Amino acid sequence: MREIVLYIAMSLDGYIADAQGGVDWLDGHGEPEEGMESYSRLLQRIDTVVMGWNTYHQVTTQLSPDRWVYEGLHTYVITHRPLPAAPGITFTAEAPCALVRRLRREEGKAVWICGGGSVVQPLVREDLIDEYHLSLIPTILGSGIRLFGELADQRKLRLVHTQSTGGIAELIYRRR
Question: Domains in the chain, start-ordered, CATH in brackets?
Answer without folding.
Answer: 4-175 (3.40.430.10)
